[in-house]
């Protein structure tokens, strides 16, 4: 019997040219880059060079190429209105998912090709994973919180006991989440909670972390107040969001805790990145604390902490989806060099999201996620706002 030979046409390569390249890890721009894409993967990167025979050539002229940006803290379920909680409550799941998908598309158009959603309603974000019109998505599902605690309306309420949080973690595991988010302190979006007050006992937090790690999932804690920060560190969390050292009257500085963050290797999700909106100014309780918060972030960076930009996109008009390109302006304020600021939203962010093996760099074997901007983002951080082209997993975003 003669076997039939089946011939399939090889996928065409794409060769992308630009004037400059920030590769995600270096401190200087590479001149005249040629980036060769093989479908969803980067095949080769060199300065100058010749496009492979038969490749489709995309010439971006004087643009600068970067890896697709990575936001480590978004909320696709919130619509960046003045009443995001009420607006979400008014939507059924189908409507909410449609709004979340549009938020994801807006995020992609801004050059943010990967996001970590740290709080949805009822696990809705999981339905957006792997959709071609969405950023790559690391999903936490509804954050685990105490009864009546911060963001309880998203559905992640757990009994504030060791057994209660273990059961909540197992539910998240069963639903297929990528990371566990737990509310170690209160927050401003939830009446009846306060940012400076802890929501879980230290041993309860430790049980949640132990259960998550037993199932191979990392844990990041929403932690504002000093006691919540101390408890989260003692519990062994992998990351913390906000880390403001918020008190009832201001912001504390605890050198011991700042050093502990670094010594324990805990990633810091700095809440940075805001779009100026005419007529909107921060509430006085936030504005008065910002110098202290920035000072603590600066000290964390000086000590060697892994600081990334977690914008909290979606929670207010100054935090629209796709706000991440504004973050390097504030990252520089807290002492990051221009290159450090870009690494914080590319390669370092990829590591915090558990994606260091395929995201955050323009290098062979990495995902074909590219952002092209007008200008030099090392010299001018606002260049990130001048998007010329976005490629997400080998597909050009329209």
Can you describe this structure?
It is a single chain. Residues 5-9 have low confidence and may be disordered. The chain is globular, with a radius of gyration of 21 Å. The strands form four sheets. It has a six-stranded mixed sheet with strand order 3-2-7-16-17-18, with no helix packed on it. α3 packs parallel to α4 and α9 (327-333) packs across α10 (338-344). The chain has two domains: 14-67 and 360-397, Urease, subunit C, domain 1 (Roll), CATH 2.30.40; 69-353, Metal-dependent hydrolases (TIM Barrel), CATH 3.20.20.140. β17 (387-392) and β18 form a beta hairpin. It is α/β, with parallel strands linked by helices and 398 residues long. It has helices at residues 84-89, 93-109, 162-175, 202-214, 226-235, 255-263, 284-287, 290-303, 327-333, 338-344, 347-352; strands at residues 14-17, 20-21, 30-31, 33-38, 41-47, 56-59, 64-67, 69-74, 112-117, 136-139, 180-183, 219-225, 239-246, 267-270, 307-309, 370-373, 387-392, 395-396.
Poorly predicted spans? 5-9
Strand composition percent: 15-25%
Query: Which CATH class of the largest domain is shown?
Result: Alpha Beta
CATH overall fold name of the largest domain: TIM Barrel
Using DSSP, what is the number of strands? 18
CATH H-level homologous superfamily name of the largest domain: Metal-dependent hydrolases
Q: Assign an overall shape.
A: globular
Specify Rg, calculated over alpha carbons: 21 Å
Protein name: Imidazolonepropionase
Domain Amidohydrolase-related: 64-397
GO molecular function, one term: hydrolase activity, acting on carbon-nitrogen (but not peptide) bonds
